[in-house]
Amino acid sequence: MSVDAVPIESAGALAAGRSEVRREVLRELMRSPLFLLGAFILLVWIVCAIFGSTIAPHSPFDQNLEKINQAPSGAHLFGTDQLGRDMLSRVIVGSRNIMIIAPLGTVLGTAMGTSLGLVMGYFRGWPDDSLGRIVEAFLALPLVVTGLLVVTALGHSNAIIILVIGIVFTPLIARTVRAAVLLERELDYVAAARLRGEGAAYIMFIEILPNVLAPILVEFTVRLGYAIFLVATLSFLGVGIQPPSPDWGLEISQNFGQVTAGYWWEVLFDAVAIISLVVAVNLVSDSIERVLER
Amino acid sequence: MSTVSPQLPGGAGDPDGGAAGADALTVDAIDISYRVRGRDLVTVRDVSFRIGRGESYGLVGESGSGKSTIALAVVRYLARNGRVSRGGIAIDGRDVLAMSSGELRKLRQNTVSMVYQEPGKALNPTIRVGRQVAEVFELAGLKRPEALERSREMLEKVRISDPEGVMKRYPHQLSGGMLQRVVIAMALAAEPSLLILDEPTTALDATVEAEVLDLISALRTEFETSLLFISHNLAVIAKMCDRVGVLYAGELMEEGPAREVFDDPRNPYTVGLLRCIPRRGTAKNQDTLDTIPGFPPGPGEIQQGCVFAGRCGLVEDRCRQEAPPLYAVDAPSGRARQSRCHFHERAQTPPRVVKPQREDGAAANGAGLGEVLVSAADVSKTFHMEGQTIHGLVDVNVEVRAGETLGLVGESGSGKTTLARVLLGLTPPDKGATLAIEGSALPDNARARTRDQRKALQIVFQNPDSALNRRHSIRRLLSRALDKLGGYKGEALAKRLRALLVEVRVAERYLPMRPAQLSGGLKQRVAIARAFAGDPKIVVCDEPTSALDVSVQAAILNLLNDLQRREQVSYLFISHDLGVVRYLSDRIAVLYLGRIMELGTAEQVFNAPHHPYTEALLSAVPTLEPGGAAARERIKLEGEIPSAANPPTGCVFHTRCPRFLGDVCVNTEPPLAEAEPGHAIRCHIPLEELRRLQATEVTVAGAGD
Questions:
Q1: Residue pairs between chains A and B whose CB atoms are closer than 8 Å
Q2: ipTM greater than 0.90, yes or no?
Q3: Partner A contacted by B517 (CB < 8 A)
């Protein structure tokens, strides 16, 4: 008979320090082609977001009514839209908006979610029960509907959209952090801190938080992908940035009527841009998760 | 002086090694290496041994010595990056290394079985026990009903009293001892010719361990199975094995008949290991423990000379130059023995590392002398879990006096750790309990205590990996404790930190490192330093050495002892290792199901007359003393520890008591009554009667002579 629960003694399990671990994680990531692909695409969009109009071949705002709805060609690689604006330039410059709002919103959501998760996981009892109900209620609402409602109610500035993303992500991240903290709080170093008379805030943020960073990092990258999608959706629904500013979601919403007229390029390249960014973030996040979980 | 060629490991068996009368297992000069980052790390080097038919062979060694690696290699279970890079392995005369995957499956099905340390991990938690055992028979070709019938018989053979009931249950509904029996039943179902046991009882309580070991011995005879028994516990090996191999850093240091090797070791490493273990009846004020200095080398670290040279007391230039072969040892018994030491003829007497210290008994004998430091009166603790009420502690009264060590012993679930946590203020007791320190009331909750009270009561946890925040540097861990508990700041803190490191003997260069970079022993020293940062009056030691190897354990026990002598600190010492408790404790409390069954000085508790439960606990522990195991009859404890949710009526121990009287035990709970000065026993049998009953057995403390 064979029992398969074999404890594997690894000769490689030698003592390793923190910087060494970090270097090992990095080395492992660099060896993964999927991570490199994702990181490359991400880098391209970051460059576009920062240098936007400098590297764009044309101004994204210049209208040329003699050259409307032109198919992709040597002069205009991605073609032109119904006002004769260069699509390539609009796609490049249009990255800025999403590349600012999505990460900031995710950072805000991660910060709030982490704090909430620490409180729920560390105290358990009634804080956990009452906050848990609110979290569940939030999770029951579809993200886009919640976002749409809040933006409509509060007006649509970038700050509001960032806030909305932060709020809708908070319960999701809180749930993950809470689960990690529940395991961590049972370890003896937490008891040792209580025996030193440390306060709850010190134990949560100085003792426990550094030990739950790995799941938080993974959760952050996963949420970032969703945030990009959410920002694009809100723009598509017309509650994001306003015309004539170039923006992927907004452009798809304005131009998708043109597709039936055969002008597919006015939607396709924005859509591909959104997809490439979401996929890139997911490639990076998957690789990080895989490396950290080993 | 003659050398034995490594190809033919010594032994009395047939030298031809023909396939007909083949040994159950032959391991012939194997190297095992792991490929790590493109380099081959040799973890096991030139190991040879053979196990004859029906023989029981033990492999002992500390963690990292390669004993489990060898066991895995024998059934070709090595991790993907590991391989046997030299030598051969044969089971029943058949070459294991040359087998195809189909042949290997057959081999694991019919010829070899393995049992591991954690029985819970060997069983599938989602499948009923009966089906899992039956699966083994179904694999052998039986139909389901027949397989279930055979499973029932097999479970009976491993002395499970209610096999039908057990078969219907899931693994998590069974206790650890019961699970290990189920796993052993599965392992023996195919009537293998070789059974490999890798630390099979390490996770079990002493009483359960004794039963499982008895069971293995009995079944071994019944099934005529050969055993490869792997353990870090020398006493268990001595009890279970005919012959033993002592492993160190992947090499076999000594081999021979188990009793002879332990009674008359011929290798400095074996001698060192044996000296690290507190001998029965030895107390801290009589003798210090010897240790093995330094650390074992990493794989491939030593290219020249003897692997043990760096830590050996007998080392000479030759040892560093020339790797010793396995020398044949001329033993008085004339049986084959080997030792990997150039100087095996005088290996019995390497110089001691730690100078023996004897004190004038009075100074160290804290019992009865100090004033009461901490007292806990009428402490009960009831846990409410999923509708069940669990009585963790029931009416416990203890005092710890200044400068003494109070040992707490008992099986798992007896409430030792709960009592410690109540004293520390980590677990609030039920209403009605009174805690006091130096005569003044002590709040239930650590947060509500004053800084003086908090720093007076500290703890050293069992597992330093859990007790030290793995993201904090050693400097930060200790500085924070010095600041919060000791009130040290700035320059004073730096000065005290250096002094503290000297006290626990940790080099300053470790300060910037994180716990993962330190060895287990060093981590525990850091944990001890943290507990001593605020000059505590009493330190709870919760199994502080059970996660450590014996050589490291000895050093930690010596350290605790030194600190106690210098700082006049008291210990509440929790351990399942009775030898260790006996060595360190002045007084001992024996707990069972949350109640104190016996309380007295170490001598009173360890020597008859004592409580029947203590008697059973003591007799369950395997011993290394010459003839120890044979000299005394083991008191067997029947059945499992009852659930604390539903404790027995009357005396809670009556369901397992070897000295059960009758109705009075079932109906009336005996009081914890002082039977003689300083010695309280919770039993209906009068002390004199106990003395008479227990006199027939050799007293445990005197078993050494």
A1: 113
A2: no
A3: yes
